User: Which sequence fits this backbone?
């Protein structure tokens, strides 16, 4: 049993040579191709992940840019809309002012025309009254009627003026 | 019945007595077992690699990739860092080699070569060379020697610390060999002892010998299952500790 702990140098050296040769041969014929293929695939996956990450970043940048442009366009549209509303308001005010002015003018003209026609009518009435007065006076003079009759004639003339 | 003789015969290596011109060749049961395991591993793995590259066997490809990923992600990279990538083939071979040699003892008429101190010492020597080689490769001779002295050590302590650290590294490598040897040897000794119980009791009384077969065989089956577990566990421990020691040399204090 004491041989258990007695190393056999021959077996030891043979095992070392055997094992190192096995490592060399397996590296060449087994592990090399497998590790190579594994790392190649992992690199491919890493590269794909990187590409995907880049694409995502580009998409995010594009989205950000589009959002900015959209916001800018919305802002411009709002500004234009506000300007248009303002211009419309101004135009409306102007139109209203013009209409008001025109109305005033027409009103003034109508008033002036009415005043003129009224004055004309008054003048006509006055002329008529004067003519009638002259006519009444002439009749009074021609007939030499009594005082009561004269009063009746004046009342009759006045009645005629009213009717006219 | 000579129990010691029976156990020795079962455990010890047997020289086949081959000589070449008066020079004894180390052709023993254990060395032949190792050679057979190596040839089988080489042929099997080369075939699997060929299947893998030609995308023939899906199952074989997946198994091989999972194994390599396990050794790389579970043992090499966590303990050695990216510097360990170049040594991955060594660790892949080491684990499978130790595992197959451990399991070879489970096959009738074959021996567990890792219950031989010469074999485990040879493996530990290879791992020791890898550890020292890693230190020299990544730090150079001066850097490697400096790594034996922890940073911040007072100058007057260096003559004491340096030899201690060197001896510590040597002991670590020796312990690698002794741990594997002792574990595999003890398992097989227990297995043979359990079987011998039946014969020892049978010599005293045939009836008790027959009766003792039931518990002895139950224990034998239990121990065999345990041996299977130990075979995997020891292969893992040896590979893991080699990676840890190499990592501690690469990433010094």
Assistant:
């Amino acid at each position: 049993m004491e041989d258990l702990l007695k190393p056999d140098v021959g077996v030891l050296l043979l095992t070392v040579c055997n094992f190192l040769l096995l490592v060399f041969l397996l590296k060449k014929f087994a592990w090399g191709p497998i590790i190579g293929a594994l790392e190649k695939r992992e690199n491919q996956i890493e590269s794909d992940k990187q590409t995907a990450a880049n694409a995502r970043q580009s998409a995010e940048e594009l989205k950000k840019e589009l959002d900015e442009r959209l916001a800018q366009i919305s802002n411009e549209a709002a500004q234009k809309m506000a300007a248009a509303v303002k211009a419309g308001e101004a135009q409306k005010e102007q139109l209203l002012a013009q209409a008001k002015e025109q109305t005033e003018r027409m009103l003034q003209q109508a008033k002036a025309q009415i005043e003129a026609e009224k004055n004309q009518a008054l003048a006509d009435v006055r002329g008529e009254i004067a003519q009638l007065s002259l006519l009444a006076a002439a009749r009074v003079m021609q007939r030499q009627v009594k005082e009561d009759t004269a009063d009746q004639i004046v009342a009759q003339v006045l009645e005629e003026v009213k009717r006219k | 019945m000579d129990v010691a003789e029976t156990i020795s015969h079962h455990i010890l290596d047997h020289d086949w007595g081959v000589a070449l011109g008066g020079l004894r060749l180390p052709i023993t049961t254990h060395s032949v077992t190792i050679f057979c395991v190596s040839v089988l591993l080489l042929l099997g793995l080369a075939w699997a690699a060929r299947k893998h590259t030609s995308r023939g066997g899906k199952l074989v490809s997946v198994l091989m990739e999972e194994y390599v990923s396990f050794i790389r992600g579970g043992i090499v990279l966590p303990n050695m860092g990216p510097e360990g990538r170049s040594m991955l083939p060594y660790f892949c071979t080491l684990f499978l080699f130790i595992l197959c040699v451990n399991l070879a003892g489970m096959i009738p008429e074959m021996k567990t070569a890792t219950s031989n101190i010469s074999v485990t010492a040879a493996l530990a020597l290879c791992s020791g060379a890898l550890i020292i080689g890693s230190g020299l490769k990544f730090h150079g001779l001066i850097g490697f020697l400096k790594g034996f002295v922890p940073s911040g050590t007072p100058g007057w302590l260096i003559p004491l610390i340096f030899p201690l650290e060197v001896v510590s590294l040597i002991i670590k490598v020796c312990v690698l060999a002794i741990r594997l040897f002792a574990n595999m040897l003890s398992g097989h000794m227990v297995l043979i002892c359990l079987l011998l119980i039946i014969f020892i009791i049978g010599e005293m009384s045939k009836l008790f010998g027959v009766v003792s077969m039931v518990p002895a065989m139950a224990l034998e089956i239990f121990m065999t299952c345990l041996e299977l577990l130990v075979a995997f566990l020891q292969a893992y421990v040896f590979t893991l500790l080699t990676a840890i020691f190499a990592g501690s040399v690469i990433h010094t204090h």
Remarks:
- Helices of chain B lie at 3-11, 29-53, 58-80, 88-104, 117-146, 158-204, 206-250.
- The radius of gyration of chain B is 22 Å.
- The first strand of chain B starts at residue 19 and ends at 20.
